[in-house]
Amino acid sequence: MILFYSDYLEGCHPEILKRLQQTNLDQTPGYGVDDYCNQARAIIKEVCGTPDADIHFLVGGTQTNATVISSALKPYQGVLCATTGHINAHETGAVEHTGHKVLALEGKDGKINASQVEDALSAQHNDPSYEHIVQPGMLYISYPTELGTIYSKQELIDIKKVCAKWDIPLFIDGARLGYGLTSSKCDLTIKDIAAIADVFYIGGTKQGALFGEAVVINKESLKKDFRYNIKQNGGMLAKGRLLGIQFATLFTDNLYFEIARNANRLADKLRNALKSKGYRMLAESPTNQVFPILSDEKAEELAASFGFEEWGRIDNSHTAVRFCTSWATTDEQIDSLIAAL
Amino acid sequence: MILFYSDYLEGCHPEILKRLQQTNLDQTPGYGVDDYCNQARAIIKEVCGTPDADIHFLVGGTQTNATVISSALKPYQGVLCATTGHINAHETGAVEHTGHKVLALEGKDGKINASQVEDALSAQHNDPSYEHIVQPGMLYISYPTELGTIYSKQELIDIKKVCAKWDIPLFIDGARLGYGLTSSKCDLTIKDIAAIADVFYIGGTKQGALFGEAVVINKESLKKDFRYNIKQNGGMLAKGRLLGIQFATLFTDNLYFEIARNANRLADKLRNALKSKGYRMLAESPTNQVFPILSDEKAEELAASFGFEEWGRIDNSHTAVRFCTSWATTDEQIDSLIAAL
Amino acid sequence: MILFYSDYLEGCHPEILKRLQQTNLDQTPGYGVDDYCNQARAIIKEVCGTPDADIHFLVGGTQTNATVISSALKPYQGVLCATTGHINAHETGAVEHTGHKVLALEGKDGKINASQVEDALSAQHNDPSYEHIVQPGMLYISYPTELGTIYSKQELIDIKKVCAKWDIPLFIDGARLGYGLTSSKCDLTIKDIAAIADVFYIGGTKQGALFGEAVVINKESLKKDFRYNIKQNGGMLAKGRLLGIQFATLFTDNLYFEIARNANRLADKLRNALKSKGYRMLAESPTNQVFPILSDEKAEELAASFGFEEWGRIDNSHTAVRFCTSWATTDEQIDSLIAAL
Amino acid sequence: MILFYSDYLEGCHPEILKRLQQTNLDQTPGYGVDDYCNQARAIIKEVCGTPDADIHFLVGGTQTNATVISSALKPYQGVLCATTGHINAHETGAVEHTGHKVLALEGKDGKINASQVEDALSAQHNDPSYEHIVQPGMLYISYPTELGTIYSKQELIDIKKVCAKWDIPLFIDGARLGYGLTSSKCDLTIKDIAAIADVFYIGGTKQGALFGEAVVINKESLKKDFRYNIKQNGGMLAKGRLLGIQFATLFTDNLYFEIARNANRLADKLRNALKSKGYRMLAESPTNQVFPILSDEKAEELAASFGFEEWGRIDNSHTAVRFCTSWATTDEQIDSLIAAL
Fold first, then answer.
1. What average pLDDT does this structure show over B294-316?
2. What is the reported pTM?
3. Closest Cα to residue A54, out of A230, A176, A179?
4. Separation in Å, CA of C118 to nearest CA in chain B
C-alpha cells in the first residue's frame, strides 16, 4: 500500500531529525524563549522582510487558528471566512468554543472575493438592528485554500483594501503556505504575504516538520500579551526549543520551499496524467493536493493498492477523492499510481 | 404616527397591570419559588397536558434560547436551525458566546424539513473525519417562524421522528406561540406542541406581557439542575413573582389565546386588503406578522404616518417591509393603514 | 409572618406602578432607545455630574456584572474582588462562564484595601512565569458590600490610585448603592462615586424597582459597542421603556435616596435594639442589612413569626442571620420584631 | 552553567529519538489511530491493570487539564483543587477559559484531604441558595503535587470515598507521575492510581519525552466522544504517531520508571547534602523537586554557576528556590552543586 491520504503521513524531513539529535542534550529554558527559537525568529523575519513582526511558535493548526482569532476579537465579534474554510468545516467548532461565531461566506473553489467581504461588512453595519447581529471583526482566508487553490496577488490586495476600509485584521492560514508560494501558478512571494496579512502563519506540520506552526504578527494591536493567549489555549510547548529547531532548519538553505516545490512537481505530474487520461477535477488546484473525480469502480480498484481520501459524492456513481504529495513522496510512488489509473 | 414596528411597542395587557397592582405588597421569596409562580406552573401544565413537565420562567428570548441550548449540549455539539432562525440571525451570537456552533440549514420561508435534518445528521456521523466536525446535538425551530409561517402537525411529527432516531432533543422557540396556534391555518394545539417538543417556550414578551418566557421541559435529562443554568446565564429574576403573576394572568380564562386570535384577525384584515390592492408578499405568513413588498415611493409615503420595519431589499425600486399586530392593535389603526395603502 | 429575608420581597414602589399605568398605551421603539430611557439617562447624568457618561439599563445584577466584566477584559485577564464579592460567591460562576477567572482577595468585613490590590498586581507582573498566571484586568468592589459595610471616600481614592497606576478599570457594583450613600456613616456622594469609578451600576431591583440596574460608563474605552455586549449576554429588554420609566421615577424628587434613607433608619432602629439587648453582630453594617448572631434557641423561636436568612454558623449553638429592610418596611414591622427579640 | 530550572530542559531520552529515527519513513494515518498509538495503549493498559480503560494522547499538560475537566463538567459546575494546584495557579486560567470556576481549597504542602473535600461539597449542597453557588463537579489533585509531595494510599482512598459519595469524578494530574511512584516514600503503584482515579494522566513532557501526556479514562461516562473534545481543544496532534512511539518506548522495559527512579536518587542526594549543611526546606518533597530556603547572599552566589527557580520570598533576607532533577541529570552535575552549597 502506498498512502496519499495527506501530507502528514510520515515523521519529518531527515534534516530536522538530525538537528534534534545534535541538540538533544543542550539545556535551554522552556516555553519558547530559548536561543533556537530566537534564531528561527530572526531567519523568518529576514525571509518575510518584516523586521518588526512578532513571531510565535505553536504546535498545531486548530490551536493556532483558535488562539489568533479569539485574541483578536471582541466578545460580540465573529470571523468571516469561506464555508469551506478549515475553521468552519474541520476544527470541531474550536473557534465557537472560544465564544465567537464563524461567519461563513459561500466561496468558489475554496476562495472568497473582496466584494463578498465588502457586502458582508456593509450589510451588518447598515442593518437597522445591527446590534442584534454578530459584528465581523476579522477576515480569515487560507492560502492555499482547503481545495488547493490560490489567490492572485491582485485578489489579495483587493481583499486587504476592504479589510483596511472597515478596520478589521486579515488573517491568512498558511498551513500549506509553501505549496502555494511554489506553485507554478503563483504570482507572489512570502514577502508579499507578509506585507498584506495583518497576521498569518507558516505551516510546519504539513510541510516536513514533526509538528509546528509559526505565527507572524504584523499589526501592532495584535502583538500585546500574545503569549498569555498561547498559554491559555494550551499551545505553549514546554520544550519550545523543538519548534525553534524545526523552523530554523526549515528556513535554512531554503529547505521549506524546496520541499514544497518538489511536492508540487509530483502533484503536477499526477495531475497531468489524470487529465491526459480524461479524468475530471473537483477543483483546479495548482498545489500539492489533487482532487480527481473517479467512478466508484475505479475508486474501489485503486483502494486495493493506494490510500486516498474520499472528498465528496458527485453523483450516484462518482466520487471526488484527494491525493496529497509531500516532502516524502517519491517519483516511484507517483509513477505507480499513474500506472494504476 | 401609528407604529407597527413590532408586537412589543406598548406596556402590557391591562389585566396584568391590574394583578401587579393587587399583589404589590404581598411578601414572597425571590427567584421563582413563590406561590404565584407555582400557580402559573400548575395552569400551564394543565393547559399543555404535561403534568410531569418542569416549568421555568425567564425574562427574555435571547437569554432563554442561550440557556436552554447551552444546558443541553456537550461542548463539541452544535445546534441545527434554519439560517433565518432567531439564534442564527438576531441574537448577536449569544449561542456561540456559550461555546457552541449554530449549524444553519437553508430553509424555505423560515422553515426547514425533516429530510434536511436527517441529511445533516447522517452527513456528520458518516464523515470519515467526523470528530473534526461539530456534532449536531439539538434541533431548534421557531413556531411560528421569524417569517410568520407555521409548521403543520405532520411536518412537526416528521421532524420529531428524525430527532428521536438520532437521539437529539427538539427545541421549539415559541416567542410568538399563541399567534401560531390561533392562526386560521393552524392544525395543531398547544397540547400537540407539548407532546412533540422535548423542550419549548411560551413567549410572553411579544404576546401581552411586560416581559417573560415560560420554558416547558419534557425530556427528563434536560430537567436536572436547570435552575443553576438560569442563574448562571443571568436569567433568574430576583422578583420572580412578576413572571408568575404575568403567566398566571395570561393563562387564566384563555387570555393568552384571545390576545393572539385578535391580533391574527387584524393581520388577516390587513393582508386581505393588501392582496386585494395587488401587493405581493415576501412570505405567506398566516400569523400576526405581515410582509408586503412595497415600491420605494409607497414606502416613503407610508412612513410619514406609520412606523414599520424594513425587512430587505427586493430590487432597485422595491423593498419588503414588516407590519406587526399585537394585543394593543385596534381596528381603527388597521383601518387607517388600509386607507393609506 | 413578617419577612425580612431580603430587600426584594414586594413588588415595587407605588409611584413606579402608577407611572407604568399612565404610560402603558404609549407606543415606543424597543431595546432601550425610547424617550423614557433617554429621559432617565439625562436625569442620572445630572445627578451623577457626569455629562459624558454612557448610561445603559439592564434587567438584573448577575447579568450586569457578567456583561460589564466580560466586555472589559482580554481573554487572559481576570477580575480582582473580595472573596465575599457577589461575583465570587453568589452568581453561579457567571463570570467564569464568560471565560474569565475571578481573582479573590481575602477581605475584612466584605472590604478589600488598596495595598492588597497593589500586592496582587505587582505579584502577577513580577512573577518570572507571569504569562502562566491570569493577569488582573479589572477591580470589582461592592458599595455597600455584601456584608452591608461601606468604604470611606479616602479608601476609594486610594484604591482608585492603584487601579490608575496599573491601568485597570475600577468597577463598583452598586446593587444597593442608595443604602450606602444615605447611611449615617457615609462620607461621600453619588457624584464622588461617579468621579472615582470607571464604571459602576445603580441598583434598582433592591431599591424599589420591579427590576433593573443602570450602568454608568465613564471610561472611554469601555463605551464602544457596549450595546452589543448587552444583547449577547441576554440583558437587552425588548420593552426597554420599562427600565427608563422606573429609573426616571426613582431619580425624580430624590425618591431613590428617600427610599434608602428610610430603610436605613429602620435598620438603625433594629440595630440599636439588638445592641441594647446585648446581641453581637457578625459585621458592623451601617446600612439596610443587619447581621446579628443569635442562639439557636432564639433563632428557632423568632422563625415562627419572622422570615430572615441564615448567614453562617458561628459555633455549635449560635448562628449569624440577616434581616433586611427596604422601601416597603414599616415601623410597625420593625417594632414587632424588636418586641420579639 | 548547569541548569536545574525544571525537568524539561533537554530534548528527550535517547531511546525515543532512536525510535523516531527508525520509524520516520513509515506511513501512518493521522490523529492517533495508528498502530504505534494502539501499541502504546495496549502496554499502558497492561501496566495499569485497566483493560477497559480508554487511552488518549495529548501534547501538553495545560491542554490536557482543560480538555479533561471541561469535558466532564456541566456548565454550572466547577472543579475543586488545592490553591497550589497547577490549574489554579499556573495555567493562565485555561479552565476558566472553558467556562468553569476553579474552586480552590487551602492545602498543606500542596495536598488537600478528604474532609476538606467533604466540607466543600456538603456546604454547597446544603446552602439555602445553593443554585447561586457553583456546584463542585470534579476533584482535581496532582500526584505528586506542585511542591513535590505525595499522597499516601490511604489518603487517596479516603478522598475517593468522598468523591464516590457525592458522585463526582476524581481526576489525578500525573504530570510527574513516575517521580511520585518511584519515590522512597511512596506506598502505592500505578495500578493503585489506576484503580482509584476516574481519570488520570501519565506525564511524558517532564519525564523524558519530547512532549506528550497519556490520559487514562476509567469512568464510563467520561469516555463518550472524548476525541471530539481533544480536537476542539486543539490537542489532537496531526502526526499522532509521535505520541504513540514515545509512550510505547517509555513503557517498554520499565524505562519510564527507571528514568524517574534515577532522578529521585539524585534529588535525594542533593536533599541529604542540603540537610546535612543545615538548610531548611520549604516543603518535604520526596520526589525530584527540591525546595531549599537560601539566604539571598547564597542564592546570588549560586546563581553565577547554576540555574534554579525562585519559588517565593520567605523573609527579608531569604528566598525559597527550586532545583529539579530529570532523566538527563548526572551525578557530576549534582556533585558540583553540592560542592558549591
1. 95
2. 0.97
3. A230
4. 30
